Amino acid sequence: MECVSCGKCFQLERVINVEFEVIIGLEVHAQLLTKSKIFCSCSTVFGAEPNTHTCPVCLGMPGVLPVLNRKVVDFALRVGLAVHCEIAHYSRFARKNYFYPDLPKGYQISQYELPLAEHGYVEVTTNGKSKRIGVARIHMEEDAGKLLHDERMEADSYSYVDLNRTGVPLIEIVSEPEIRTPEEASEYLKNLRGILQYLEVCDGNMEEGSFRCDANISLRPVGQQRLGTRTELKNMNSFKNVQRALEYEIRRQTNILDDGSEVIQETRLWDAAKGVTLSMRGKEEAHDYRYFPDPDLVPLIIDDDWIEVVRGSLPELPQEKRDRFIKEYQVPEYDAEVLTSSKSLADYYEESVRLFPSPKVVSNWVMGELLRRLKGDDRDIEDCPVTPRYLAKMLKMIEDGTISGKIAKTVFEEMYLSGEDPEKLVREKDLLQLTDEEELDRIIEKVLSGNATEVEDYKKGKSKLLGFFVGQVMKETKGKANPKLVNEILRGRLDR
Amino acid sequence: MDLYRLKIHELQEMLQRGEVRSREVTESVFRRIDDVEGKVGAFITLMETEGLECAELADRRIEGGKQDGLTGIPLAIKDNMCMKGKRTTCGSRILESYKPPYDGTVIKSLEGHLSVPVGKTNMDEFAMGSSTETSYFGITRNPWDLGRIAGGSSGGSASAVAADECIGALGSDTGGSIRQPAAYCGVVGLKPTYGRVSRFGLVAFASSLDQIGPLTKDVRDCAILLTAISGHDRLDSTSVDIAVEDYVNSLDRDISGLRIGIPKEYFAGGIDPDVEKYVWDAVKELERLGAAYKEVSLSHSEYAIAAYYIIAPAEASSNLARYDGVKYGYRASSPEGLLDMYAKTRSEGFGREVKRRIMLGTYALSAGYYDAYYKKASQVRTLIARDFDEAFKVCDLLLTPTVPAPAFKIGEKTGDPLQMYFTDIFTVPANLVGIPGISVPCGFSKDGLPIGLQLLGRHFDEATLLQAAYAFEQHTDYHLRRPSLDAGRGK
Q1: Domain spans of chain A, in order of start
Q2: Mutate to test the interface with B, among A153, A157, A292 (most CBs of B within 10 A)
Q3: Which one of A25, A433, B68, B254 has the minimum C-beta count within 10 Å?
Q4: d(CA A295, CA B208)
């Protein structure tokens, strides 16, 4: 973090820590993975030809009426319960009125005074310390469409409206202003996204916009009760960008306050390329959305039975899973954290352990080779060519000595590239472990006689040289020799 | 025989017996339109070609023995109900050439019966008005006195029925828009319980108040048409899943013992003497038929108009936001940028009354004013509803004049919106409360203008409403009188 004004000194960081407390609140919009839209039966599938997933209802034709998709309520309830919210037995949809060409009715159906869920929390851990960040509310709403602008931007150029996304269900999750650092903000988002993915209600893709985040941020002198003037940050499409934007904004506001000036309440856009936030609109240009209850939709009544059915269907959530991994598989906390970072990875791990019940060995391979390889290719675990069955099979082959640990790395690489059965690969590529003692004897003989000086030194007491001889044998056998046997034979010969 | 003069139930029997064909009836109606429409101006769009095609289909169905209620009956539809591929204007320039891509639920029902569409009737722009003077397509005249208004906003439907330009019609009622023109034009008009008839396909004015309902030549026809359009619709979340009663076959149920409440506040003054006389005559007639009447109090009714003119414009300001020139309807030419396109399109596309209400509603919902206006009005609405609940504990129906005075002259109130708003003083509460109401002819003023009697019932108790109206009608002949438009008949 460098100083905004000079770009070199680190003085400002000290100032932040000493004098100001940072107050951050996050608003997350998550697209729900229902098959149809929230108020009509159109498909929610992404990427269709413009305006093909539309009907009179989502096009906002005169005379149409919305009908609530029950599945959306189910999904929103899952989230509400997973983040420990109180569920409202009586909630209402409201209209948020504003004009924009991607909003065909001239209002967005959302919830305002009576949201679906309130007063929950998400647990975050930063620097080894756990903390609960309050979730103020969760409400359901419809997404807007998209505008496509003519690149020329001439007087005769047009803007086009694609309403496929109009009516795709969203939930908005609003945190309490209890986040104090950009790291906490990032952790909160990661955990929240993990929960949504575990619940299988949102794919959590920030780049494609199915998981979006806006931030409210203000500073106040430490000890002051009254909140400072906040700015709202938009357009941050990755965890990293959220963190960078917040860091920038802290520096910017600190500078302003240090100068004795006042922060202006406004909405600012994060420019990731330039690494700055830029003013989008001021308070006086802020919309008056004229919210009022939508008379086209009846109040949403949710009874205890409905809540309990949803509660009963909740899957194990990331934290519970992590704790169980530590207990059940005896893996270190760090391993458990990594392995449960996504549900599909956790599923992969568990399936592998089921087939090869050595949790720590599996964990080492998954967290080592597997994740390294996936990360390098920017691939998700879902697209991993090595199935848990093949991974387990390969681990078994190491265990029973069919291949060496070293060769296993080659086998893994081959499996990763081809998706083939490790047995087949070992056979075809001649990677079987060399366990024939006569054969090994012969090779060791050759190594020892070729390194007479080292043999002398060893016998004089330089026992560290054993490793050198093992290495030489491995080199000679292209890593196929059984290291245990090699050790035994070597010791037998040298220590005689 | 002038077939166009007949009623739905008369034609039903004749069609069933094969005494007449729908095609003949339909032709008769269109000849009648040729004769009188120039004077009345009830329609925005006529559908002669489609109507005759449909009549042929209906005749074939009837030959096959399947006359069900409305088959082959020529009906007029208010121009705020969406008919696939047929211009639906709402009386507004902004939808001058708009053709919906779908059929509303009520239209689908009528099509299912193979009733014959005559045309789309004139209305106050977006149903905002009480006189059908705010239509972009011109004024509809009262067939009883062409110098007077037909009422509104369903003035086109009411005058089309009164002038025999159709056999029956559909209108919509947000604050009296069916009952008030029905009273002015001497026909029967019913606003069903909120939720009884689907609103899907009805272009919204004020969503929590709008209901579609029939305008007919007598009460039996009203029951027939109401039966055809009532029922739960999954496409309308506010429609209610309560079984539809047999309104037609229960019509002649004895009304003796029926308790009728007379809300004293409604007779407190300001009612035209002719109206007051005939309404009290109606009370006596019903009493003679065995009903008992007693005075009741609806003490919050005096705030109904005030609450209505907050709630309805507030909802309208949001409902009409979609007319922005982006997707359909009128778009101003050569705007400079997006905001200018919105401003010009809406300034040029909407008329004065609509703009007035959009501004009223926008104001009432604005930050800092919401509590004082919209929220307060909603609270008043609840109080008014409680008054009615109390009243319905001691009576089965409420009886009032439909309108304080007979039809006024064209242009008489256009300069004074408040005067215009107060013509709805007796009809608005039923919309705020959601209960059904009917207006039936109950007399004629000294000037020969029709006077309407309003009956209000409990939620979903249209049957009782219709029974009382029918009993009254059976013992009076006001509904049989016709305007003398024929005097100037050319053919």
Answers
A1: 27-214+226-243+262-305, 318-428, 437-494
A2: A292
A3: B254
A4: 5
Cβ A111 vs Cβ A93: under 8 Å: yes
Task: Write out chain B residues lying below 8 Å of A290, CB-based.
Answer: 317-318, 362, 365-367, 370
Asked whether the beta carbons of B69 and B114 are under 8 A apart, the reply is no
Query: Is A65 touching B (CB cutoff 8 A)?
Result: yes
Written as six digits, the tokens of B490 are 């050319």
Query: What residues in B contact A148, CB-CB < 8 Å?
Result: none
**CATH number of this structure's domain A437-494:** 1.10.10.410
B199 reaches A (C-beta below 8 A): yes
The whole-model pTM stands at 0.88
B88: chain A residues, CB-CB within 8 Å: 62-63
Cα A110 to Cα A26: distance, rounded to the nearest angstrom: 18
- Per the structure, the complete domain to which residue B240 belongs is given by 3-258
Asked whether residue B441 is assigned to any structural domain, the reply reads no
Domain CATH code at residue B19: 3.90.1300.10
CB < 8 Å to A62, chain B: 82, 88, 90, 95, 98, 100, 203-204, 322-323
Residues of B annotated as catalytic are 78, 153, 177
Q: Smallest Cβ distance to A63: which of B202, B234, B374?
A: B202
Q: What is the ipTM of this complex?
A: 0.95
Q: List the beta bridge partners of residue B261.
A: B294, B398
Residues in chain B: 491
Pairwise CA distance, residues B153 & B44, whole Å: 14
Give pLDDT tens digits along chain A (496 positions): 444 444 455 554 444 444 899 999 999 999 999 999 999 999 999 889 999 999 999 999 999 999 999 999 999 999 999 999 999 999 999 999 999 999 999 999 999 999 999 999 999 988 878 899 999 999 999 999 999 888 777 777 788 999 999 999 999 999 999 999 999 999 999 999 999 999 999 999 888 889 999 999 999 988 888 899 999 999 898 888 999 999 999 999 998 998 888 899 999 999 988 889 998 877 767 789 999 999 999 999 999 999 999 999 999 998 889 999 999 999 998 899 889 988 889 999 999 999 999 899 899 999 988 999 888 888 888 888 899 999 998 899 888 878 877 788 888 888 898 888 888 888 887 777 777 788 888 888 888 888 888 888 888 888 888 888 888 888 888 777 887 888 888 888 887 6
Residue B188 falls within a domain, yes or no?
yes
